[in-house]
């Protein structure tokens, strides 16, 4: 399955997703600049991405912890999600996300 990621310079990367990996793990495995400081524990908000509108409704609903952690994110938008909370599945083949600005 593909995960299509636009980096902060606007460059588009087509990554190979792996079943049951999170989008964060796929992005980090490709050495794109995503801090993901807590390692996927939904405790840092440094894996923040913007999800393309066409994909937003296809994602599983946010858990309360993700909603609360996004309060600590930078430049949070309607389509903001924590990429560690997006598990890659066949249904998400072709998912498009954009890396959010880094927190300082
Ligand atoms: S990696 Fe820390 S919240 Fe996602």
Give a verbal description of the structure.
It is a single chain. This protein has about 100 residues and is an alpha+beta fold. It has one domain (about 1-100): Beta-grasp domain (Ubiquitin-like (UB roll)), CATH 3.10.20.30. It is built from 3 helices and 5 strands; from the N terminus they run ββαβααββ. The protein has helices spanning about 25-30, 55, 65-70; strands at about 1-5, 10-15, 50, 80, 95-100. Strands 2-1-5-3-4 form a 5-stranded mixed beta sheet. Strand 1 and strand 2 form a beta hairpin. The protein is globular. The structure holds FE2/S2 (inorganic) cluster.
Looking at CATH, the homologous superfamily is Beta-grasp domain
Architecture per CATH nomenclature, i.e. the level-2 architecture:
Roll
The number of distinct β-strands equals 5
Shape: globular
* Average pLDDT for all residues: 95
Q: Separation of termini?
A: 32 Å
Give the H and E element order: EEHEHHEE
Count of individual domains: 1
Helix share of residues?
A: 10-25%
Catalogue the ligands.
FE2/S2 (inorganic) cluster
The description of the largest β-sheet is: 5 strands, mixed
Evaluate the radius of gyration: 12 Å
What is the oligomeric state here?
A: single chain
Beta fraction: 15-25%
The level 1 CATH classification is: Alpha Beta
By DSSP (H or I, 4+ residues per run), the number of helices equals: 3
């Amino acid at each position: 399955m593909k995960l299509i990621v636009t980096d902060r310079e606007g460059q588009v990367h087509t990554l190979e997703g792996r079943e049951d990996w999170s989008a964060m793990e796929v992005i980090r495995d490709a050495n794109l600049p995503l801090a993901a400081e807590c390692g996927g524990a939904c405790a840092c908000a440094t894996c923040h991405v913007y999800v393309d509108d066409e994909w937003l409704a296809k994602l599983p609903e946010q858990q309360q912890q993700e909603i609360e952690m996004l309060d600590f994110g930078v430049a949070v938008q309607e389509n903001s999600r924590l990429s560690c909370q997006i598990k890659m599945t066949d249904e998400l083949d072709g998912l498009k996300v954009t890396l959010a600005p880094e927190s300082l």
